């Protein structure tokens, strides 16, 4: 959250709190960063002088502060202290470090579906606690949601409203942010928890698209769109679009409850996070060159061991079975003669002697029927080492260098002779 120096007209001490910085200013008053004698930091809002003189506002302010005291839950900025009888009423809430959702999107761009769903699930859970306390926020929007290290926090619980729970202070003028107001607020009807659900849907759409679902324009244009036009959800991820559209229903009765939103968004966040982890999971590196040959040989040898009941396959001479040829391909054969250790010579695993003898064509490559390696041939289990391509390339470069040098020397000699 951006901080500014105190101005000359700003107070230095309010109640038991010493003020250090300006956090922001709005239509209701100025918000300061303050601290008490124990060092506890608070966000302290001082009401504007013209509002402090309005008795109707003071009454409304007192009711809102009383309601805010009843809110319990980790997704809200806890009310610490307030003075309703001061010349300029003020209240202090727990200071929440971290940017607002509005600033986060403005600086870093739109958020991925998994993050939007996770923030939405936590906010919906916080709204459950707010509504259970008998409070309707009435001004939920991205700038009133702070992203702290411990999760999102909701601030400014409708205290900025200078009149009653309806929405119009003057004819044709709505109090709040036009792109996030519910249709019943624009019409001047009574607000309910469903009013916050509408603003909640518009807030999720903003996090996913960096814009209000009703676009931009003057207050009159925005309010008309809220009441009469459908929201524009182009850019909202498919996993979130149906739920956001349900929140933005014109009829409050058709909107989901905050409990339903919390459960559904938690499911979406988990599913999207798993999908993202699957996409980002790196593929194992495949060996190449000589490593590929060794890898294939190891796989073949392990397969031969597994087919022999976990025991290493052996030939008639007691050596290990070859990784190539009929020994490994037969699956049941372990030695050069194609016989399994422990079985009578001349019999196959089926016990039929007619097929017990191993044809010469099935003798492992590179080995004689006696198990000896023919002269001048490399054993099959000892592959010839492939020449290093880097050495070959180095020799080629040296050869080219020598040729070019000789040609250059000849040319120089010819030129000197001329």
From TrEMBL:
Domain Protein kinase: from-to ranges: 17-268
Bias (Low complexity): 309-323, 343-379
The entry's keywords: ATP-binding, Kinase, Membrane, Nucleotide-binding, Serine/threonine-protein kinase, Transferase, Transmembrane, Transmembrane helix
TM region(s), chain numbering: 398-417
Region described as Disordered: spans on this chain: 272-388
Molecular function GO labels: ATP binding; protein serine/threonine kinase activity
InterPro entries: Kinase-like_dom_sf, Prot_kinase_dom, Protein_kinase_ATP_BS, Ser/Thr_kinase_AS
Residues binding ATP: 45
Listed Basic and acidic residues bias regions: 282-302
Pfam annotation, one family: Pkinase
Protein's name according to its UniProt entry: Serine/threonine protein kinase
Organism of this sequence: Actinacidiphila yanglinensis
């Amino acid at each position: 959250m951006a901080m500014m120096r105190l101005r000359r007209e700003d107070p230095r001490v309010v109640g038991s709190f010493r003020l250090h910085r300006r956090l922001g200013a709005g239509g209701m008053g100025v918000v300061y960063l303050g601290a008490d004698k124990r060092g506890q930091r608070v966000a302290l809002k001082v009401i504007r002088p013209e509002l402090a003189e309005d008795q109707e506002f003071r009454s409304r302010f007192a009711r809102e502060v009383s309601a805010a005291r009843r809110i319990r839950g980790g997704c809200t900025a806890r009310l610490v202290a307030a003075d309703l009888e001061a010349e300029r009423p003020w209240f202090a809430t727990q200071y929440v470090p971290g940017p607002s959702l509005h600033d986060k999107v403005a600086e870093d761009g739109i958020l991925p579906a998994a993050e939007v769903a996770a923030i939405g699930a936590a906010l919906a859970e916080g709204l459950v606690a707010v509504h259970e306390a008998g409070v309707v926020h009435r001004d939920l929007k991205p700038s009133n949601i702070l992203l702290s290290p411990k999760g999102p926090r909701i601030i400014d619980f409708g205290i900025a409203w200078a009149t009653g729970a309806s929405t119009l202070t003057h004819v044709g003028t709505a109090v709040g942010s036009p792109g996030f107001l519910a249709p019943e607020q624009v019409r001047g009807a009574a607000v309910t928890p469903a009013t916050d659900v509408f603003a909640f849907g518009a807030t999720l759409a903003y996090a996913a698209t960096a814009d209000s679902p009703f676009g931009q324009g003057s207050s009159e244009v925005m309010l008309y769109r809220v009441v009469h036009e459908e929201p524009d959800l182009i850019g909202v991820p498919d996993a979130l679009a149906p739920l956001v559209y349900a929140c933005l229903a014109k009829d409050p009765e058709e909107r989901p409850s905050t409990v339903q939103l919390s459960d559904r968004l938690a499911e979406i966040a988990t599913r999207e996070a798993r999908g993202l982890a699957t996409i980002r999971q790196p593929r194992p590196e495949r060996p190449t060159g000589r490593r590929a040959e060794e890898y294939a040989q190891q796989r073949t040898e392990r397969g031969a061991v597994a087919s022999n009941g976990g025991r290493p396959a052996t030939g008639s001479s007691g050596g290990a079975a070859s990784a190539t040829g009929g020994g490994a391909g037969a699956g049941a054969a372990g030695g050069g003669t194609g016989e399994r250790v422990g079985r009578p010579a001349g019999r196959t695993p089926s016990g039929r002697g007619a097929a017990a003898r191993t044809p010469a064509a099935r003798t492992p490559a590179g080995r004689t029927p006696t198990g000896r390696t023919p002269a001048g041939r490399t054993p099959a289990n000892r592959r010839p080492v492939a020449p290093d391509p880097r050495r070959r390339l180095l020799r080629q470069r040296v050869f080219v260098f020598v040729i070019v040098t000789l040609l250059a020397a000849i040319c120089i000699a010819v030129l000197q002779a001329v």
